[in-house]
Amino acid sequence: MTARYMSEVVAGFTHDVHAVRVVFAVDAHRTSLLPELERLGAKSVLVLASASQKAVAGALTAAMPGGRAQPLAFTRSRAAAGQISRVCEVAAREETDCLVAVGSGAVIHAARQAALRAELPLIALPTSYAGAEFVPPPRTNGPAAYPAAAASRVVIYDPALTIGLSDHVTARSAMRALAHGVDVLCTPDASPVAAMMAEEGIRQISDSMPDAILHPHGLVGRSRTQYGGYLTAASFAVSAPGPHRALCEAVEEACGLRHADVRPVVLPHLLAATGVKRPLALARVAEALGCNDAVQGIADLAHEVGAPQSLRELGMGLDGLNAALEALRRDETAALHAELKPDVLAAVVESAFHGRTPLGP
Predict the structure, then answer these.
(1) pTM value?
(2) What is the per-residue pLDDT across 231-262, written as a single tens digit (0 to 9) for each?
(3) Among candidates 175, 100, 107, 103, which has minimal Cα distance to 137?
(4) C-alpha–C-alpha distance, residues 157 and 93, integer Å
(5) What is the mean pLDDT of residues 292-305?
């Protein structure tokens, strides 16, 4: 037998691993929740759920033995901080020893914050693809972000829970998940393990997201999109913020729009402006997308699935655009990190506002 080897040792790297148990299966919210609660030794459970998941939460609590489980509704229109305090109060009063969260980003983020404050384990059942079960909330939105390491103790991925998502929410959520993977590949210090996960996550999402929208009640596209979202979120959570992520966050803050929607819209424009500085990263993104041009591939995918392609579609008006451009021209920090001039960064935002074809520097 001939041994195969490379002529160089593996380059040194550091890779964090969060102690999160992941369960992935169709119908896992019915078949896996009780065994996971038993494994944690949970006796009194509080189920936090969004309005759209009220029926699911009711069925889960009814199936839990001993009558020591109760649902608690989460309402997006109410202040997150107040609802987090309410969760902690109910948990203390009922002597809860485990939280369960069923829903999309807002619910999962609130549950993670409550679990951290109350020092309770959390089982998350995501109903969208954007990775709130791993990724901390943006610093400009809601209560102070918790540490990235404060992930859920258990995450149960069940593609059946995503069937109720509308096409536009599916597209936005999945594009957000894809953006996480691009961020990781554009981070110079990302470990090769995280980069490998991010690349495969992008591949899974780009291949399966159109099918998830074309067949809204099918499970093939939804399960693969969910799997891709897990990979990109998990890799994003253990990668230190790089210049590309800092640049995205500065643009999001200046735009003043919903964080989850801004990044996928701005992403191809930022990549077009900065891609010459990270050609290898763009090559890996393009390979994962199955195309020759990463920038065009992301733009084409967004168009194919009906995701927003301009900041105007997200509700930004001309006054908001002017305010964002002025803020970006005044603050040179983000542009400096990405080795861009403030005027170039402002041009990126203006191009994204109009939904123009992304152009390089």
Answers:
(1) 0.90
(2) 999 999 998 877 667 767 777 777 777 666 78
(3) 107
(4) 30
(5) 94
